[in-house]
Design brief:
Length: 445
């Protein structure tokens, strides 16, 4: 290597750019997530099974003096790390409601209606198999769609998929996320400590007020959101992930500088930078440094804090938090009576709820909306595309595993629910992939 410039070009070509493409690829996040779940299954049925399960039960504490929270590693992942996941979900929901696929009633009506059908039918089918006792509490498990997995499978098909179908499935999954959050808030909340909840409400009001008066510093929202809102909800009995979604909705979604003003300022600053005297060494001059700092500040003001956070946190969630969750929650140890576990009412209810209920709900509601002429199919999308999307919506995985952990105390029911989730999600992935791959691009309605 002869000089620093050539070394930098090689580093960009062989290290930086491939990593950037990997992180931004929706398919890769699904593959990493599936790999983590597969590894959990392998370890759970290996000679290290006991050590693997025991590892997640190690406890550690945070706090000081007499104010200490002690939980197992598994609980910290589900209540802490997954709060970050739900925070990013909340950011995405707010962006889509303000300026995305859910901002136009005409555009949103079909996927939202399909999502509602895709939540009601799975719950009803699950209750056919489990209509009483502790197992009845698992009705929320097959209601959820794993947006990362579903879109990952869809993106594997590349150009075979109409863009409008990707938009439809994305909007459906986002509406489904709203439903899942509401189900967790209203139906999977333990006994409530109203003093802690009131404290959380006061912190939430402070966050909303900060947004209204124009506070844009994300560190401020992080401190109040984590140290105040999340902690208060964690201690209140309302699941802490709800605090994460509420905190996300308080993040400002407005820019500080308009597009036209941004363009004008950037043109002026770039001209100043060109005119600044170069020093012909790797470091910039003092004058160039001040211009670059101003460019960075102007660019920051042209981007909403909401989008900046969502974009910055997505790799952390997709490639760290969700795989860790899958690794800690996806392990199922097959006992001697595997057939008994697979054919248990919980496993069958979850499997049928996802694989039959989701498809019935999504496809049935779309068909009804078309028959009543309340909506039309997106351009380039036919009925087989919708059927395939219905199966992809049946990939429950992350959200379903999360709700299963809230629904059941019994380890036996947890194992059965996981078997139903994993088997239905894998089956739905293959069927959905095949249906969309062979659907063509006709617009038969």
């Amino acid at each position: 290597m002869t000089n620093t410039g050539e070394k930098k070009e090689l580093a960009d070509k062989w290290i930086i750019e491939p990593i950037g493409r990997f992180i931004s690829n929706s398919t890769m996040s699904g593959i990493v997530l599936f790999s983590a779940a597969f590894l959990a299954l392998v370890l759970s049925n290996s000679p290290w099974s006991e050590a693997f399960h025991h590892f997640w039960e190690n406890e550690f504490s945070i706090g000081f003096s007499n104010h200490v929270l002690t939980k197992s590693l598994h609980h910290w992942i589900n209540d802490g790390l997954m709060a970050v996941f739900f925070f990013v979900v909340g950011l995405e929901l707010k962006r889509e409601i303000i300026a995305g696929e859910l901002s136009s009633p005409k555009q949103a009506v079909l996927p939202v209606a399909a999502a509602i059908g895709g939540m009601i039918f799975p719950a009803l089918i699950y209750l056919i198999f489990n209509n009483s006792g502790e197992t009845a509490g698992g009705w929320g498990i097959p209601m959820a769609t794993d947006i990362a997995f579903a879109l990952g499978v869809l993106y594997l098909l590349g150009d075979r998929v109409p863009v409008s179908l990707k938009i439809f499935l994305t909007a459906l999954a986002i509406a489904d996320d709203i439903g899942a959050v509401l189900v967790i808030a209203f139906f999977y909340t333990s006994q409530i400590d109203y003093l802690s909840l009131l404290t959380g409400g006061a912190v939430l009001a402070a966050l909303i007020f900060a947004n209204l008066i124009g506070v844009r510093n994300t560190v401020f929202y992080a401190i109040l959101g984590i140290g105040g809102l999340w902690l208060a909800f964690l201690m209140s009995g309302v699941h802490a992930t709800i605090a994460a979604v509420l905190a996300a909705f308080t993040i400002p979604a407005t820019v500080k500088i308009s597009e036209s003003a941004y363009s004008e300022k950037m043109q002026r600053l770039l001209t100043k930078f060109k005119e600044a005297d170069p020093n012909n060494v790797p470091t910039v001059t003092e004058a160039q440094l001040h211009i670059l700092e101003e460019i960075r500040a102007v660019s920051k003001n042209a981007l909403t804090p909401l989008q900046r956070l969502e974009h910055g946190m997505h790799p952390l969630v997709a490639f760290v938090i969700m795989p860790i969750f899958a690794l800690s929650n996806g392990g199922v140890t097959f006992s001697g009576d595997v057939m008994g576990q697979v054919t248990s009412p919980v496993a069958l209810g979850v499997f049928a709820g996802l694989l039959i209920g989701k498809v019935m709900g999504v496809v049935g509601v779309v068909h009804l909306m078309l028959r009543l002429k309340w909506a039309t199919l997106p351009a380039g999308v036919n009925k087989q595309h919708i059927l395939g999307a219905g199966f992809l919506a049946a990939i429950g995985f992350t959200m379903s595993l999360f709700i299963a952990d809230l629904a059941f105390i019994s380890p036996e029911y947890m194992v059965q629910a996981k078997l139903g989730i994993l088997s239905a999600s894998v089956t739905a992935s293959f069927i959905g992939f095949f249906l969309i791959k062979t659907a063509g691009k006709s617009t038969t309605k």
